Protein 1
Amino acid sequence: MLGKLFGNKEKTHSLKIDGVDKSISISSKETLLQAALKEGVKFPHSCRVGGCAMCKCRLVSGKVKELTEKSYILSAEELQTGYILACQSLPRSDVQVEVDFSRADIPEHDLVTTPGKIIAQNPLTHDISEIVIETDKDIEFTAGQFAEITVPGDITDARSYSFGSAPGRYKNEIHFFVRAVPGGAMSNWILGDQAVGTKVELQGPFGDFYLRSSDKPMLCVAGGSGLAPVLAVLEDAANQGVNRPVSFLFGARTEQDLYCLDQIKEIKARWKGEFEFVPVLSDEPEDSAWTGARGFVTAHFEKYCTAETQLYMCGPPPMIDAAIAEAHKYKLEDKDIFFDKFLDKSDLEKPKQNEPAQTA
């Protein structure tokens, strides 16, 4: 979920996408997917980390450097015919790709780049804070989407953060939930004493995590700062009068890691249909006063997940991967599973070693 990546000497190439009229200028430090999305191309994608194959495309011509192994996610036939993952491919020359746009499912909004200023930092837990940024321009978005943030002159590699409130709640003001990542340059800076009052730059919206139109029961799962987009989706749905049954599992380590409980309670009070909220603690001491659910959120899928459910999830990759596998046990199909994996920069800085560039 990050911006420009890797490389020593930055070069500029052209990216040609079959079906898109214009040629896109792309830096050797950004992936094909990043360049396409920044130009407003509705490129099919989901996880952005090489774990779902939604952004697969066929390399027609040119060379790319692939950041992660793709053989486990693409079929043998796709590998033989030159398919690559756009989110994991850096250009090493001018590149042309072929994309199946019928798989694209991204809300229509203008891509906005705007200066902003951090005006507030509100602690939520010991390692998560709400960050409020006042922007020069308003960014229209769909609940569940995210923006990319840079700090001009300081942190130029963009970091992605999901909008933490429903659209329209604030004017020229954006709220994010930021978790302190050990060694994380952006998260530790933005949560530090010097951040409030500092100017930043935002670009968005991005992402295809949002509430789909359906009458199916919703199973929502969040972990850590992954609560932000799920909360935004539920708040917006409550504003719209959605009456679908909802089961909301919020996974945390201990009771001290739960947050925004009053806001969740308020959404539940306004919900037109059934709404069950279940906080699940994985590391709460056995001798504590906690009487709620324990373990991992997947241990509670038996009660809430069926083949007729729509599953919405945001959080760390291990939780998402385990939840998808668990959902498959209950015959839930991938077409009804929607997620956004929350990763830090270290998750993406794992390029393949001693691998030649992919050539069409």
Protein 2
Amino acid sequence: MLFFQRILKEPAPASSTAPMVERRSARRFAISPAFALKAVLSFVPRDESGAPMSNTRQGWNWKGRLIDCSEEGVRMQLGPGLKLAPDEPCDLKLVVDSYELTIPCHVTNLTDQPEGVLLGLRHDIKDGENMSAYRQLLEIVALGATLKLHQPAAPDASGYLVEKYAGNRASRLTVWRHPADNSVAAFEFQLKDNLVRAAAGQRVEFLADTDGHGSRPASTEKCLEIGRLFTWVVPNLAAVVPEDVREFLQRCAS
């Protein structure tokens, strides 16, 4: 199931059924525990000797936490006591709100830690729609995680202090602060060709088609998707974004 039908559209790959090109240097994007993403790994557990306890991986579901994701796969934390083997086939089930994505994958590495097992998982996606959904999930995390400070707070023509953050995934966050106390007065957050903006005490606005040709209020259907995207991006903001800005955005996303 795609997370978004009207936004986050990407050009179709040369072959919709081909797996992603392997990139050993693919960047990992950290996933915040604050992101309401539930992760469950389905696989066949092993006994003390290492032998599988079943001939099917279905039905053995173990909750865990997604640490980060990349174009190749993910890293995941599971509880202690679980036995797995390299190349173990498994299904990673991801759920956020009412949306669910099941990713076939296999174990690439395991690290035992006091709090559990850290798994490296490489996806084995063959289905085109599953691939598109996974790319959307990656984009959701990357839009906020790649932000860097582009312009420290400086006064603009209106007298407000303006600071800007930019990411490499067509994301731009502009923050206006009151000059008297440096508190956040307003923000504008570009998420690819969508725009979210609000000022303190005012309602949040959603605009579409911010591709250099101007912007306009989004349709009702797009507003719902842009609002959901904004809600999911905010928990995964880069550490460079100050805490007061995070809190302001979080209130607007609530």
Protein 3
Amino acid sequence: MDPKRFLIYSTVFAVMGLSNAVIPILPELAARDHGSVGAFASSLLFSAYFLGALATMLPFGILSDRFGSLRFIGLGILLTAGSGLTMLLSENLWVLLLARFVEGLACGAFFPAAFSTLSEYRNPRRCMGEFTFLLNAGLAAGTLSSGLLAETHLKGAIFIFTFIAFLLILLLLPRYRELTGPDRRGQGATWDRPDVLSDSFKHAFGTINTVLLGRHSRILLLSVLLNGGVGILIAYYPDYSADFLTKAQLGSSISSLYICAMITSILIGRFSIGEGNMVRIGIGFSALGAFLAIQYPFLGFACLGGGSGIAIVGFSLAFARMDIDRGLSMGLFNTTIYAGLSLAPIAAGLFTGTLSLEEIFLANGCILAGAFFLKE
């Protein structure tokens, strides 16, 4: 395996592990400095990360096309390490929210650059499957380790993945010249030219407008709906299950989502199935899992994860085939992911005063089921 691919695979595991290390302990983190603040505050702590990613996916995707992907992979590592250290040292809710937002910025820097790089390999289907496998491995490891360590070391999992992020900085040091010098296209000198950057963004946003109004609009909507459904369940399940699941059981149940996504994403990359069929199959299983999770958490999250693992590979291939710049297409793809994960839980939170969490979960399942029947 070449060094850049190893760096990407290692980084996605660390970034995703740290992002989910807070999930089983969201109520405790939200309440430590401000008392009992309820499910909505927990959902804000959950969503702050995704809002940071949402705000930067497209800009960083556009910039990675011009200035080279490695720079933004490195930026993602540095921001991840810094945000993890801040979460370890602070108990203040507002500082934690800011750290989660910066962690999202790291994700926004890393993912478009990583997807863009992998899409250029000789077998992008296999690379996307392996990347998605490790992405979900990190999510599962973060959730499971946090749940298991919560009773003895509340921030134990945060420490583990912050430490891994600092180790990744060591992998960047031998590539200092590549990170700071001109990239292989000789564009390193354009950082200080506002006219070049302005033209890049104007071109990119014109392209995005064409995509939104064209035949690709359906795939964007489906990605938002699927990831929004996943986000609602993950954000509110710690509060929903507080009376019938221990932290270890909660961590195990949510981690089953990512373990099953790991399995399906690595397997689906080996089959000759069109991306459209991958998306349809994945959404079908995800809708079923959303309903099952209401009463059967382990089975429901496992089904939801298996479906999302299939769908994400399909989405990544569909976006990679768009006739636009790779960094831009991957930035757009990841924007739909984080739009769903960040905005759907906040939108659901507006109904927590009038609907029970179980009713919100039922409505969430119905929306996913409707997405399955969305016409071409």
